[in-house]
Design a protein that fits this description.
The chain is 44% helix and 8% strand. The chain is mainly alpha-helical and 201 residues long. The chain has two domains: 32 residues, no CATH class; 144 residues, no CATH class.
C-alpha cells in the first residue's frame, strides 16, 4: 500500500499532468522572450500610470504567494471601512474621476487570498483614459487591447467576465514596441530592447 499510494500514484499523476497539462502543472508561467515574468494565477503590484492596476492586496508584501491571506475584517469593521474609503479616494485621484462616477468594487476590495490576478471589465475600462494619456495612445487602441483580453466564463458558468492584468499590461508594452520598431524600420535604423520590464511597474 505504501508503494502504491506513496510512489506509484504520485508518479502516475505527475506524469499525466506533465503530459496533458504541462503549462498549468508547472505554475501557469508567463514568458517574455526567454524570461519568466510571472504567473497567470498570481497578481502583481502595478503602480505606474501607464499600466492597468489590479485588485488591492491586504498582504504586508502585496501578492506574496508564500503568505497568502486577507484581513478577515467584517463589512462593518471600522478599520475595513476606513481602508476602503482611502482606496476609493486613491482610485478617484489617480484616474481623475468625478464624485458621481462609481468605483468598481474590485479596485477597492482585496480578495481573500490577496493574490487575485484579474479585474473586471468595468475596472479595466475605468482606467483606459489614464493609461491612454500616460502612453500617448488613442483611447480606441487601448480599448481594443482590453477587449481582446476579456476572458470568457469557464464552461459557461454564471459570473462576471474578467481580465488578467499582467497579460493586459504585457500586451500594451508589446503594442508600444511594435510601433517603435515600425518607426525605426521606416527611418532605416536599428532598434534595441524587447520584452516586459519590471522597472516601470
Amino acid at each position: 500500500m505504501t508503494v502504491l499510494l506513496g510512489l506509484a500514484y504520485p508518479f502516475a499523476m505527475t506524469g499525466i499532468s506533465q503530459s496533458l497539462f504541462r503549462q498549468k502543472a508547472n505554475g501557469s508561467l508567463i514568458m517574455s522572450g526567454n524570461r519568466v515574468v510571472g504567473s497567470s494565477l498570481i497578481g502583481q503590484n502595478f503602480s505606474h500610470p501607464k499600466y492597468f492596476h489590479g485588485r488591492p492586496s491586504a498582504l504586508e508584501k502585496p501578492y506574496d504567494a508564500s503568505n497568502s491571506g486577507g484581513t478577515n475584517f467584517g463589512p462593518s469593521n471600522a478599520k475595513f471601512l476606513e481602508k476602503v474609503g482611502q482606496r476609493i479616494e486613491e482610485v478617484r485621484k489617480k484616474n481623475g474621476l468625478d464624485l458621481a462616477v462609481p468605483v468598481p468594487a474590485d479596485l477597492v476590495l482585496a480578495s481573500a487570498s490577496g493574490l487575485d490576478p484579474h479585474i473586471s471589465v468595468e475596472a479595466a475600462m475605468l482606467q483606459v483614459p489614464r493609461v491612454t494619456k500616460a502612453r500617448g495612445l488613442a483611447e480606441s487602441e487601448v480599448e481594443d487591447i482590453v477587449a481582446k483580453h476579456v476572458e470568457s466564463l469557464l464552461f459557461g458558468f454564471p459570473g462576471s467576465k474578467r481580465i488578467n492584468v499582467l497579460r493586459l499590461n504585457m500586451a500594451l508594452d508589446e503594442q508600444i514596441l511594435c510601433k517603435r520598431q515600425a518607426i525605426v524600420f521606416e527611418s532605416g535604423k536599428g532598434v534595441k530592447g524587447n520584452g516586459f520590464s519590471e522597472r516601470n511597474r
